[in-house]
């Protein structure tokens, strides 16, 4: 069985389980919408101040909803020693990582498709300055955060304090990603903010590629350490 077929089988398995139960997806969507409403109420301010807060209000529900997905990975694979069974199988461990990464990315894109329109509705934002840049940032930012989150969530499964250990490892490593997505989101949303986009786009793309390739090739080794 080749690498891509193994990846597809893991992706199909995870999405089939999730769409059959729908509990995680509904939880992520509801959580993101509730956060959008809460942040809108908490930061109900003028447009000038919103230019400094808008990027954070847009991204916080998405990133925290993704954390729910990472914790669900841990809980689901711990049941009946599912991860142990996958590890002792002849399955390529890189395919295991890539399948789980793509499955979580699909869920996050679904959340984005609901959360981002809710942001413009609740905060009463004008049409973004650059819709193309905003879409690119949403894709690159989600990709990088999910790639790192799935990798660390799987590695942390052997710990008894997985839920605590995951954010402790994930958020410090994600600081360059957060800086990039906040800066580029501000440029995409507001025409009055001008800064160089290329440097931040290169940073996001490099981060995404780096933290996708490293787990892909080292996943098998790191799981055994």
UniProtKB/TrEMBL annotation:
It holds the Pfam family CcmB. Its main location: membrane. Coiled coil: none annotated. InterPro entries: Cyt_c_biogenesis_CcmB (IPR003544). The keyword Protein transport does not apply. It is found in: Membrane. It is a multi-pass membrane protein. The chain crosses the membrane at residues 23-43, 49-70, 101-124, 130-152, 164-184, 199-223. Keywords: Cytochrome c-type biogenesis, Membrane, Transmembrane, Transmembrane helix, Transport. Belongs to the CcmB/CycW/HelB family. PANTHER family: CYTOCHROME C BIOGENESIS B-RELATED, HEME EXPORTER PROTEIN B. This is Heme exporter protein CcmB.
């Amino acid at each position: 069985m080749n690498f891509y077929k193994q990846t597809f089988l893991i992706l199909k398995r995870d999405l089939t389980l999730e769409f059959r139960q729908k509990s995680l997806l509904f939880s992520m969507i509801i959580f993101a919408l509730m956060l959008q409403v809460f942040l809108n109420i908490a930061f109900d301010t003028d447009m000038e101040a919103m230019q400094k807060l808008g990027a954070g209000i847009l991204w916080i529900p998405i990133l925290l909803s993704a954390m729910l997905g990472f914790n669900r990975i841990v809980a689901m694979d711990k049941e009946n020693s599912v991860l142990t069974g996958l590890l002792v199988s002849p399955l390529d461990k890189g395919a295991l990582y890539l399948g789980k990464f793509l499955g979580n990315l699909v869920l996050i894109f679904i959340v984005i498709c609901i959360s981002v329109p809710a942001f413009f509705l609740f905060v009463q934002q004008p049409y973004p300055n650059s819709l193309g840049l905003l879409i690119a940032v949403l894709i690159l930012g989600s990709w990088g955060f999910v790639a790192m989150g799935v990798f660390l969530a799987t590695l942390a499964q052997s710990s008894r304090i997985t839920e605590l250990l995951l954010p402790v490892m994930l958020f410090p490593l994600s600081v360059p990603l957060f800086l990039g997505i906040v800066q580029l989101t501000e440029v995409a949303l507001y025409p009055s903010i001008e800064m160089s986009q290329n440097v931040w786009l290169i940073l996001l793309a490099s981060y995404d590629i780096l933290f996708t390739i490293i787990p892909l090739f080292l996943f098998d080794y790191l799981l055994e350490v």
